[in-house]
Design brief:
Arc Repressor Mutant, subunit A, alpha+beta, 5-stranded mixed beta sheet, two-stranded antiparallel ribbon, globular
Amino acid sequence: MYSITSDCFRILAKAFLERGGAREEGLAEFAQLLTGSGTIPMLQVYRFVELLVAESGDQDMGLRAYQHFHPCLLGVKSYAMMSSATLSDALRHMAEYHPLTTDGSHMFIEQDAQGFHLMGLEIGAVGPQAPRAFIDAGAALALAVVHWLAPFERPMPVLLELTYAQPEDTDELRRLFGDNLRFGAPRNRMTFSLSDAEICLPTAAQALHPLHVGYARTWMSEQVDGSLEGRVRRILSAQLSLGISPGLGEVATQLGMSKRSLQHGLMRDEVNFSDLLDAARQRQAASLLRHSTRSLKYISAQLGFRDQSSFHKACVRWFGMAPLHYRSEPQQHSVSP
């Protein structure tokens, strides 16, 4: 079951509850979530957000998460981030250790001539598309992290792309993120200029940084990575999100293993690489078909299929129906994790 940390949830809840508007009886089922520890199921978080928005009528509720950001939200990865040399280095660490906060989405970085991109992609197996307020909160927190890391420059995104349709009132969105907004995007993406990405952090610590990174990696290994199967699943999901369909050799290289060692390790976990790749493609296909307007040709190529016919056959095998049919009724079907 996909989840987020309780620390992250409580920061979101504080932002969402700030103005009230929700009846106490409506929140009763979530009382334990607000006081517990560990992780919170994503579907419960979505229901919590949807209830508060419905009760309050405040469609911009998620944006208030910016005001409530605290480094505790980042956990142990905050040390690796703040001791980094530049803003881009710090954000790469945030993406690398994103699974310490939630396994319900992927975060990854791209850099090209247009800028430095911080991107998020929901995992299709979570269930319904994330509510707008939840997406807004994620974007608001990402901007708050950037301003925490670079408090003197406080860089603003040159473009913010959001997966939901353009709302009637965008004043609050523009007040926080600026005027360069794009709605109905295939994925949530915040772009900064290349010059902003190279801002030197005032908290950079060259001597301490390797220690902080080592600690974060150890924590990641203990708390998240778990079995070899789990690590392979995460690499496949991340690579497919970038349009790369890796083979056994490429994944083995990322794990610092030989192909033979990886094969034997997966055999001990009683799984094989082909099945893991197929499952990762299925999850990505479900997410892209449900939550993006990308063409079938694009999705087919993104997932590494030779042609659309092969992708069509795979969808019939996965979902019991053609991809266009699955896209037209996305909320009626779910994908097993």
